[in-house]
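Sample intake — Fluoride-specific ion channel FluC
Collected from: uncultured Thermomicrobiales bacterium
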Amino acid sequence: MRTFLLIGLGGALGAWARWALSGAIAARWGGTFPLGTFLVNASGCFAIGFFLTLVAARFGDSTGARALVATGFLGAYTTFSTFSFETVTLLRAGAGLTALGYVISSLLLGLAATAAGILLARAL
């Protein structure tokens, strides 16, 4: 029951953080390219790489911390379902090159950010 509650709490906070950050970015730098989702995905990839590497190295398998942060918060914060919907929306709007650029750059930045998070956590 404790793990269930930790996941729920983390999920609520992660969903709120995603909504707030994506909205703030869209309000400031809005345009055709879904920059808010793009940056949330990249920062979420970095955070999960960093967090899971740091927790494993320093604390072993901390089920509570993993449930709260990785499964709950970051599971709700990272937005690949939104990413997919936005890509299909771009395709349906005839913006195929923008959609392709969005998919490729999201994947590359996500992989690079995850690797950077792992490297930084290992360096600490």
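Post-analysis note: The mean pLDDT is 94.
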